[in-house]
Write a structure and sequence with these properties.
single chain, 325 residues, Jelly Rolls
């Protein structure tokens, strides 16, 4: 069960001003003058700072404005529709808890936000701080932003992260946690895959600092651009060169470079419902090429046309068998 301390009442005027700034940012990127005005407004009083913290939290939880409000908010300034949208948004901010740092995370593992993808689906998110996260197939994450941290908990699956610098003066660290440990982005682009009992990390840009969940005495590991590693809750794996195809799933492609068919099938089945089985005689057949994630039948046809493989489907394609041709 989650508990929180009493939240101070915020002035409705400050909340409505925060709502107005949130709407303006939704309409388009602020120019330099407007951004300076926003900074002056946000830092002018503690009340306005707290109101903006709630606006950020709402954006993080919902991934943007609710559609019903967004359309009205885009009307001309001063219009009744826009004023009504501002009022409704201010009310939403008023009932939204601002002090997420005071919330306790219990064994039920309930978090402040939750995003999921189905099997075969990819999803792109832009968080309130500008960080971009792409969720791969069958993935779920939880988001917890408070005054001290920006934390993403990867429950299962795989994500590609492009971090953004935090808005001054907060400068909160950006963290990814899994069952096996915690990673801190050091201005970077990287991928994380939770694959029990280990987490797999590959860094494309910048660097990532890794701490183990059950061995905090071990010196944190720094993984730099072009490197990859994996780790359990108490041990680090080797640091090696990252696969050059890391993250290509975000472009809808499954890349194989002299990959064993057995390993290819294990990856391929992540993106489709049903079963794919293969004759053991094909296990070590080497596969190369670019295969579309969203069209599993096309991928199977490509395999049959390129390699000595016979593809047979049963139960309307739910069960697929690969045999030597």
């Amino acid at each position: 069960m989650l508990t929180r301390r009493h939240e101070p009442h915020l002035d409705h005027q400050a909340l409505e001003e925060a709502a107005d700034w949130l709407i303006r940012m939704t309409e388009g990127e602020l120019n330099e003058t407007e951004r300076g005005e926003w900074e002056c407004w946000r830092l002018s009083t503690p009340e306005r700072g707290r109101a903006w913290a709630r606006a950020q939290l709402l954006q993080t939880k919902l991934g943007g404005l609710p559609p019903s409000l967004a359309m009205s908010a885009l009307d001309r300034p001063g219009s009744p529709e826009r004023r009504a949208a501002l009022g409704k948004l201010a009310i939403m901010l008023a009932i939204l808890p601002a002090g997420w740092g005071s919330w306790k995370l219990a064994e039920s593992q309930q978090w402040s936000a939750d995003y999921r993808t189905a099997v075969g689906q990819q999803r792109e998110l832009t968080l309130a701080d500008g960080t971009k996260i792409t969720l791969n197939t069958d993935t779920s994450i939880d988001v917890l932003f408070d005054t001290n941290h920006r934390l993403i908990h990867l429950r299962e699956g795989e994500i590609l992260v492009q971090t953004a610098p935090d808005i001054a003066p907060l400068a909160r660290p950006f963290l990814i946690s899994t069952r096996q440990g915690r990673m801190q982005a050091l201005g970077t682009r990287f991928s994380v895959r939770e694959l029990q009992p280990r987490t797999h990390l590959a860094v494309l840009e910048g660097a990532v600092k890794v701490e183990l969940a059950e061995n905090r005495q071990t010196t944190p590991l720094i993984v730099r651009a072009g490197q990859r590693t994996d780790f359990s809750s108490d041990t680090f794996g080797q640091v090696t060169a990252a696969d050059r195809y890391v993250g290509t799933w975000a472009q809808g492609m499954l890349m194989a470079d002299n990959m064993r068919l057995a390993d290819f099938v294990a990856e391929f089945t992540r993106y489709r419902r049903g079963f794919v089985r293969f004759d053991p005689a094909l296990a070590n057949l080497r596969i190369s090429g670019a295969y579309p994630i969203s069209d599993s039948q096309r991928t199977l046809n490509m395999l049959a046309q390129t390699y000595p493989i016979l593809v047979s489907g049963h139960l309307n394609g739910y069960w697929v068998m690969l045999s030597p041709a």
